[in-house]
């Protein structure tokens, strides 16, 4: 007697189909699981046995062999519990097996027979659709997530008995439907707003420029001046996520089990702020079995690195390639995976180890040597990839107590959207991603601005590296204004955003 | 030689042996009542003895019966230790070999019989289905 159940497992950020073959033979009762199962899969034998008995079915079998095909990929996690249980029921003829071909199943079982949620249901659903299954049976808590995939009936399972009765045909079961477009629109809402931040108009402007051109941003300021507060509000002024972007980001969050229970999509741009003690594997992805890291979780959103110089140097250096390519290739013993990593980098740092260099109220206690050492923790090539540097000074009391909030996120977002549209029309990409050639073509300066830039370069001691950055940023500022030509005042604003190059602070 | 004199005494059934035999009877009666068909009693092989060989539905069941007066020194089934399991395993495989290894599902059950010394009938009979697996060297 043989039964075949369809399931899927996640590898990287995609799922691959897994066939679970259950054979009940003669001999002494024994359950053998083959097909490179890890400890969690092997343990499912005992969970499944108890769950079947507690659901009112019998576990009566001789020597039972369970094969997870393809046999050469390591299977991990408890998500095969449900398909294995259904396979055992089918093979012992306690349920009818003729409809099994139409469905794919995933789910973890509790000892009581209840179905528990699992990670990575969205990729599994996409895989099931590719395999042309009619339906997918998932844990009820994951149903919303799976229902995002159109053209697939999603059945939310709460209990093994429910699934068994449905497959036998003694239970009517309505597939779970989700109006993805409506849900998507409803969830696109942030709890924070740019209006919450008092003062810091200069920094807000820098955020706007960064958002408009997709530039990476570094904020320098004393502790408590509102760097984190500002960074948290960057996603609110970015254009709303498109559905494809949301699905891609949701896939990664789904694999890592970070989707809130019952939520279908990551509809708002993610904001990830890993602690500075993070390892390279934590940031880029890795560990023994290849899982995505923080930069992939921040896909299509914002990665915020607070206290930038406190990060391990090798961790920061490892960021360089993904920043350039928008994806990260992770190689481990388990295999090589490519994860998407389209994110905006926002970093914050204090101007010196004590934090008060350049502050108007408090005195800095650091020696020049200490300050240089602190700044040098961040390498030139990394600075190279950060277009905007902005000082965020402490806010004077007068501004704190006032309630002049400034512009709301929605107003700023309008301008950002408009500026991005201009960029896409011109080159099909954001200004931050312009190649040197495109830079030459699209960022021509008129006579007065050229003079200004030349003067700035010589007087302020700016490097060639800074020159290109200034051109890019002034292009974005001009776009925000809707101006086709880059003018002198655009350039002069852009020069301001190179404070660390200007060496003014040191 | 003193043991020569003791020999006839040893042949007398002791209280323990007597209880064991009565327990086996009671177990067989009980199993028959719950749907087992007794095929062989006290199957003896080179390697050991199996108290009862039964058929239950499509299963071939090797039964070990353990009788105790009370549970003061633990459950009767605790006495089916690793050594005993190994003997039963070898005997069971011998039984299957005699039948030319048929394609049947089979298992080991242990029946616990509680029979207080002066009672006329057992106080309790318990069946532990699929009580243990084939012991180590014989796993296939």
Description:
The complex is a heterodimer of chains A (506) and B (140). By secondary structure, chain A is α/β, with parallel strands linked by helices. Chain A folds into 3 domains: 2-168, Ribosomal Protein S5, domain 2, CATH 3.30.230.10; 187-426, Rossmann fold; 434-506, Helicase, Ruva Protein, domain 3. Chain A contains 22 helices and 18 strands. In chain A, the strands form 6 sheets. In chain A, strands 11-14-17-10-18 form a 5-stranded parallel β-sheet. In chain A, a hairpin with a 2-residue loop joins β15 (327-332) and β16 (335-340). The longest helix of chain A is centred in the C-terminal third of the chain and has 18 residues, at 409-426. Chain A is elongated, with a radius of gyration of 28 Å. The mean pLDDT of chain A is 89. With 140 residues, chain B is an alpha+beta fold. Chain B has a domain at 14-77 and 103-134: Trna Endonuclease, Chain: A, domain 1, CATH 3.40.1350. Chain B contains 3 helices and 5 strands, in the order ααβββαββ. Chain A binds chain B through residues 26-30, 61-62, and chain B through 103-108, 130, 133-134, 140.
Task: Quickly describe the structure.
Chain A has 22 helices and 18 strands. Chain A has 506 residues and is of the alpha/beta class. Chain A folds into three domains: 167 residues, Ribosomal Protein S5, domain 2; 240 residues, P-loop containing nucleotide triphosphate hydrolases (Rossmann fold), CATH 3.40.50.300; 73 residues, Helicase, Ruva Protein, domain 3, CATH 1.10.8.
Mean pLDDT of chain B: 87
Largest interface: A-B, 7 and 10 residues
Chain-averaged pLDDT of chain A:
89
Largest pleated sheet of chain A: 5 strands, parallel
Q: What best-fitting shape of chain B do the alpha-carbon axes yield?
A: globular
Portion in helices of chain A:
25-40%
| General shape of chain A | elongated
CATH class of the largest domain in chain A: Alpha Beta
Spans of chain B with pLDDT under 50 lasting ≥5 residues? none
